[in-house]
Amino acid sequence: MSNSRRTFLIQSVIACSGVIAPRLAFADWAEDHFAPGKLDRTLDRLYADATIVESDAIALKLPLIAEDGAVVPITVSSTLGNVESIAILVEKNPVPLAAIFNIAPETEPFVSAHLKMAETCDVIAVVKSGETLYSARQQVKVTIGGCGG
């Protein structure tokens, strides 16, 4: 086998592995959770008919006014025990579910991220602790940018 043929075969295998590997990484992607729609529909897809209880045990750290809706910082923490997940939803975004984080057992329920917001609306954090869902919300006023422009 010539050296150029061997090089071609090696490069082909490397290129194909770059196409296959991402598909395996996204095998468990919950595409319907991140589908466009209204907030109520998204909550139904995520939690079916479960009752969500407002709680002071969830701390949201968000700006009251976001100068740029394209980059809105958020921090969510909780004093609840046995937290399994934290979901962040933006009420009036085309896709309300911004992120969902699975929290490993015996770790601090704390997440920090940046959101993109379409317009002024509530940001909601839903925390799953055991079999119960808790939430907290805060309105953020968006002045420019965001999902819409």
From TrEMBL:
Q: Check the record and name the InterPro entries matching this protein.
A: SoxY (IPR032711), SoxY_sf (IPR038162), Sulphur_oxidation_SoxY (IPR016568), TAT_signal (IPR006311)
Domain Ig-like SoxY: start-end pairs: 45-147
Q: Which domain of life is it from?
A: Bacteria
The name this protein goes by in its record: Thiosulfate oxidation carrier protein SoxY
Tell me what organism the protein belongs to.
Methylotuvimicrobium buryatense
Q: What broad taxonomic lineage does this protein's source fall under?
A: Bacteria, Pseudomonadati, Pseudomonadota, Gammaproteobacteria, Methylococcales
Q: Corresponding gene?
A: soxY
